[in-house]
UniProtKB/TrEMBL annotation:
Belongs to the ABC transporter superfamily. PANTHER family: ABC TRANSPORTER ATP-BINDING PROTEIN (PTHR42711), ABC TRANSPORTER ATP-BINDING PROTEIN NATA (PTHR42711:SF5). One of its GO terms (molecular function) is ATP binding. The keyword Transit peptide does not apply. SMART domains: AAA (SM00382). It holds the Pfam family ABC_tran. Keywords: ATP-binding, Nucleotide-binding, Transport. InterPro entries: AAA+_ATPase (IPR003593), ABC_transporter-like_ATP-bd (IPR003439), ABC_transporter_ATP-binding (IPR050763), P-loop_NTPase (IPR027417). This is ABC-2 type transport system ATP-binding protein. Residues 5-230 form the ABC transporter domain. Transmembrane segments: none annotated.
Length: 302
């Protein structure tokens, strides 16, 4: 079995309102796959169908070889689902929550997970309501992993966290991926998606409008790159070859070109600098980011 998750032609309406119109994607084992889309694009709906929590009208979903429509009861073993922030009762402690989850999944108490997520010591017996958002997120992740799920589903895993909390969770997500867990994530954080994902899909108007690795998505875009070059002798400020054209702008001593193909531009510029007996003192290429691609794709959503 190559794919951990396969979603084929998924269509889902709430009453008259059609939200998904034939969504298809697949996630390989041990891959981090991010689903992006504007508010209301249908990310959570897709995830909830996948978890067997919602019925849908058309299409097929298979997770770890299990047909979600036919055997939703078999999914509990397979999935680890991170809770929403209001999901535990206010007075419950981390230790009690872990006990509860372990009993529910029929496994031994997993104090090791509370230690791994730094939820032992002073946090172990603190009421849930008194934990910070970051600590709650750590606890949710620890609980989601108590039965060693093969697939982890994360909906906005780092929303509202500070930089340190975000980095900690990112490290854990990478670690879980390295341990072979398949991770499906919905996020609005483009930098997070770009840094963590093996592949990304952008939902728009009820279908997957773009899909690929972060490199593929950004390389295939029509968004122009910016090339910044500074030389010691300033040879780019005058006498640039005709084919090159003058820089679009200069900034803090850098000549700046906008171009689709940075390599082509450099093949013209660098020989010119050398021919002028000049030396490059700094060179930067600003590529289109996943956020740029997202804005160009999802920005046109109805
Ligand atoms: N239970 C429901 N009944 C009716 N409409 C719903 C229901 N749940 C979601 N919707 C609608 O379906 C659409 C998709 O919602 P969904 O929550 O899946 O989007 P999302 O991409 O996760 O959005 P967000 O980024 O805001 O979380 C929205 O228009 C929403 O109003």
């Amino acid at each position: 079995m190559i794919d951990s998750i396969t979603v084929k032609n998924l269509s889902k309406s709430y009453g008259e309102k059609q939200v998904l119109r034939g969504v298809s994607f697949s996630v390989k084992h041990g891959e981090v796959f991010s689903l992006l889309g504007v508010n209301g694009a249908g990310k959570t709906t897709t995830i909830e169908c996948l978890e067997g929590l919602r019925k849908w009208q058309e299409g097929e979903i298979v997770v770890e070889g299990i047909s979600v429509r036919q055997h939703p009861e078999k999914l509990r073993k397979v999935f680890g689902v991170q809770l929403q922030s209001t999901a535990l009762s206010e007075n419950m402690t981390a230790k009690e929550a872990m006990r509860l989850f372990c009993v529910w999944h029929g496994v031994k108490y997993r104090g090791d997970l509370l230690t791994r997520f730094d939820m032992d010591g002073e946090y172990l017996n603190k009421p849930y309501a008194k934990l910070s958002t970051g600590r709650k997120r750590r606890l949710h992740l620890a609980l989601a992993l108590c039965h060693n799920p093969r697939v982890l589903v994360l909906d906005e895993p780092t929303a509202g966290l500070d930089v340190e909390g975000r980095n900690t969770l990112h490290r854990e997500i990478c670690r879980l991926r390295d341990e072979g867990v398949t991770i499906l994530m919905a996020t609005h954080d483009m930098a997070e998606a770009e840094a963590l994902s093996d592949r990304i899909a952008i939902l728009r108007d009820g279908v997957i409008a773009r899909e690929g690795t972060p490199m593929e998505l950004t390389a295939a875009s029509n968004i122009q790159n910016r090339v910044y070059i500074k030389t010691r002798g300033g040879s780019l400020r005058e006498n640039t070859p005709e084919a090159l054209g003058m820089p679009e702008t200069t900034m803090e001593g850098y000549s700046v070109w906008k171009c689709r193909d940075a390599a082509e531009l450099l093949l013209l510029i660098l020989p010119h600098i050398k021919a002028c007996d000049d030396i490059v003192s700094d060179l930067r290429i600003e590529r289109a980011s996943v956020e740029d691609i997202f804005l160009s794709v999802a920005g046109g959503a109805k």
